[in-house]
Amino acid sequence: MYNMFRLFAKSLGGVMMRKLLSLILVLLLVSVVAVGCGQSSDPAEAPASDAGSPSDATDDNAAGDATDDNTSADADNDSDANAADDNNADSQTAGQYIDGTYTAEQADYDAETGWKENITITVENGAITAVDWNGTSEATDKDKKTYSADGEYKMVEYGNAIAEWDVQAKAVEDYLIETQDPNAIPLDAEGHTDAISGATIHVSSFVTLANEALANAKAGSDDSASAETGKYVDGTFTAEDADYDAETGWKENITITVENGAITAVDWNGTSEATDKDKKTYSADGEYKMVEYGNAIAEWDVQAKAVEDYLIQTQDPNAIPLDAEGHTDAISGATIHVSNFVKLANEALQLK
């Protein structure tokens, strides 16, 4: 009996042990599952906590937007600055001047060199397209460029210059066409510049004359109308003195041609009862003898041509300033009386 009880107990103990082990295993499995679920839940909340509060996220985004806005603003500012630079560059190039031909001349002959320099500047489409820097002298009938080109100036021979005056003057003229601004030529104390290759001559007078000539070409200038074209009616217009001049014996006349509203041709001439030749022909044939008898810088027909050309350039006879004796210092190569030319031109053009 005892042995049977031991076998039963042993058998029961094995069953109980197995049940106990099974229970323990189940509990362990449940614990593992529970722990696993707990771990998967906690990390899901952790990023939200690490990222900060919603206000922080908003600030971060705002900071990003601000950075983008600033970058965009900087780009806009850079673009505006570049546009401003472009506009400034344009103001120094095409478009800053009024179309026309502008001149200026020194008031007196230089005491040292004997030359009276002049300049003629042509503006087309708002830009300087041609420049003629020249001069006249009482010692020669030749203009300064011709005198130099003919080898009479002798700057190279006597002054060891790098080139004759006319060659250096051309370099200066080209520089103004390139820069479109006479004040872009830097000057030293002696009036020279290091900015223009091939020019060691004094250029201060060039800068002064160019500024004077372009004063009326600047947009907004009150005097700019004198250079405008299109102000006249197309046609051919004439005027003539009423009587022969008591002193000279000439009765002068003028013929002005206007095309597309602009003066394109001028013929200033005269007739005399003492000859069948008109005044220009009489002069050209050497019969006037202004140079021989009057020490004039040129014969009348040559000086008259200079006056005619000046009117074509300025498009306004009243742009010719006159002194008390009827002369002008504005026209290079013309020392004759021009007051009658101005009067006849105004009559022909019906200007007051």
Sequence-ordered SSE layout with sheet pairings:
Layout lengths: L1 H50 L2 H38 L8 E6 L9 E10 L2 E11 L6 H6 L5 H5 L5 H15 L24 H11 L20 E6 L9 E10 L2 E11 L6 H6 L5 H5 L5 H15 L24 H11 L3
Antiparallel strand pairs: 1-2, 2-3, 4-5, 5-6
Spatial order of the strands forming the largest sheet: 1-2-3
Distance between the termini: 161 Å
Sheet with most strands: 3 strands, antiparallel
Principal-axes shape call: flat
Helix count equals 10
Helix content class: 40-55%
Mean pLDDT: 78
> Strand-residue fraction?
15-25%
Whole-number radius of gyration? 47 Å
| Strands, count | 6
Structural class: alpha+beta
N-to-C SSE string, H for helix and E for strand = HHEEEHHHHEEEHHHH
Structure described in brief:
With 352 residues, the protein is an alpha+beta fold. Helices cover 46% and strands 15% of the residues. The strands form two sheets. It has a three-stranded antiparallel beta sheet. Strands 4-5-6 form a three-stranded antiparallel beta sheet.
